[in-house]
Design brief:
Helix content of chain A: 25-40%
Oligomer: heterodimer
Strand content of chain A: under 5%
Strand order of the largest sheet of chain B: 1-3-2-4-6-5-10-11-9-7-8
CATH architecture of chain B: Alpha-Beta Complex
Number of helices of chain B: 15
Shape of chain A: flat
Strand order of the largest sheet of chain A: 1-2
Number of domains of chain B: 1
Number of strands of chain A: 2
CATH class of one domain in chain A: Mainly Alpha
Number of helices of chain A: 3
Structural class of chain B: alpha/beta
Strand content of chain B: 5-15%
CATH topology of chain B: Amidase signature (AS) enzymes
Helix content of chain B: 25-40%
CATH superfamily of chain B: Amidase signature (AS) domain
CATH topology of one domain in chain A: Histone, subunit A
Chain lengths: ~90, ~475
Amino acid sequence: MAITRDEVLHVARLARLALTDEEVERLGSQLSAILEAVGKVAELDLADVEPTSHPLDLANVSADDESRPSLSADEVFANAPDREDDFFRVPPA
Amino acid sequence: MTDTLRLTAEEAMGLIERSEASGAELHRAYLDAIGERDGELHAYLTTVEAAEGAGVPIALKDVISTKGVETTAGSKILAGYKPVFDSTVAACCKEAGLPLIGKTNLDEFAMGSSTENSAYGPTRNPWDPERVPGGSSGGSAAAVAGGLAPWALGSDTGGSIKQPAALCGLVGLRPTYGTVSRYGIVAFASSLDQVGPLTKTVRDAAFLYRIIAGRDPLDSTTVDLPEPVELPETEDLKGLRIGVPRELNEAEGIEPGVSEAVQRAIELCRELGAEVGETTLPRSVEFGMPCYYLIAPSEASSNLARYDGVRYGPRSGKGDIREMYMQTRDEGFGDEPKRRIMLGTYALSAGYYDAFYGQAQKVRTVIRDEFAAALEQFDVLISPTSPTVAFPLGAKTENPLAMYLSDVLAIPPNMAGLPGLSIPCGLSEGLPVGLQLIGPQFSENLLFRTGHALERAIGFDFVPERLR
């Protein structure tokens, strides 16, 4: 299935990727080929099959309600590109 | 002088026990070997000078968070990132006294099958530097095969431990989903990611699995092991029923030399006393790849949303915050993560969810059921790990689909959450061939026993021929 240039741009916006024109072109044609291959899953009639989201039969795992040590503010901000006091500083919205 | 190419982790333990070498001396010997050979192989992204711990040194794939030691996931978007905490597996290694040698190269965000997708340049195969080591844990595989680490940890989402182990002539275990903590592992596809060992012998893999396995309160997807990890001793396969799934052994693209080596291993299973029979996984191989390449990119598109230039990593772009997000991500991610983010975002977007992600989850149920049926008749299933031996650098970089096919045999059991052990079973064109052993969930002890008996009978020499 071919994916149009507009669809590539739409998906890139959803994914917050500022693609260059060259990337739009190249990724578009590669995505079409990949979608063609993975679209094969549609060949199976699985109307009555339950989906598997996770390979183990685990549900509602809860932790004990106990406090434990956490990171200090300086550790939290150690890798931040920009910090102001105890905030991550970012450009205006 | 320690022969790091030949020394197994178990032998290194012996040297330490008998006070013939210390952890720090071994650590130094590996750093010296790195100085000698890693210029060519490029297995490491970072090395650690100070030896911390008295045990057998270890290398960790660079998706494994190590406190204070740069962890990049092979991506520019994490350049310079120094975790402020240890992942649980790194903490387990520290607790066991294993000094960290360094962090190994990988395909960016563990997305790839050749380690050519690293933002920091490719790793080369110690058997033939013109060829890839496999991937995405190619750095860990090349480090162990090239004598630059006695053992290493990798991670496996769709074959990223098993396939590089196969291509580098090593033992690689992808453990049962849920047995090893992912706390502090850079996430790729969370319903599939697992951490596991790459080693020279099956017993080394069992030793290392014992160190890292078990429930972790910091990862709610982990469970307690039903039985303790046993080191394999037995050298026969009496009473074992081994199934040969037709589709996993006759898939298109399996090289004749790979098939022949696997056939010889199957014959050996009989000689060792196993009952061998044919079985079938009618849809798991044909639909496993499409299923994987919907589920993994969908989960990745969600997991990789966190790289936004706010909390860590480099930031780019002028203008407002939206522009900053988009520029940071465009400049920080390489081609493969971008492809998978786009594919996953598309598959999860309104109007396509049911047809793609939803349908793939149902295919996953089909695959689980097929493996469960085959594993009712047989204890262990056997196949090649990779359809090919190590391929030349550049051979598949222009064609993502051809690269994806490298994992066509490794992926199906992963979709079912099953453990897989790859062991070397011979050479084809002078390059190692991997044999994949698949068992039910939590059957690692059985896989170790089977792998150990076969390993003894095969007698594969894990030192690359050109380095002997």
